[in-house]
Design brief:
By secondary structure, this protein is an alpha+beta fold. It has helices at 27-35, 61-80, and strands at 13-20, 43-48, 51-58.
Length: 92
Amino acid sequence: MQGAPYALAGQPTWGTMIYVGPTAEDAAERVRAAIGSRGDGVFTVSQLEHGVVCRYLGPRVSEGKALFVRAWDALRTSCQGKAANAPRIWAT
């Protein structure tokens, strides 16, 4: 089912991920590199003074989730220096 053309650009799925904490100067660029062309037209990244905001607006929940996982992996690695291991709850 397609959303109304005047609401959310007609897309049925949206999401926002906010990272707040120590931030590498190029954190947004690292997220964009991790996302690659998969995010063209559906995924945006904004870097703030103490955080990064990622947004998805597109046709599929699975696509949005996959892009957010890539973004989370890039942020965790570049900003916290820790390996990104998906929490078990994400598998449910």
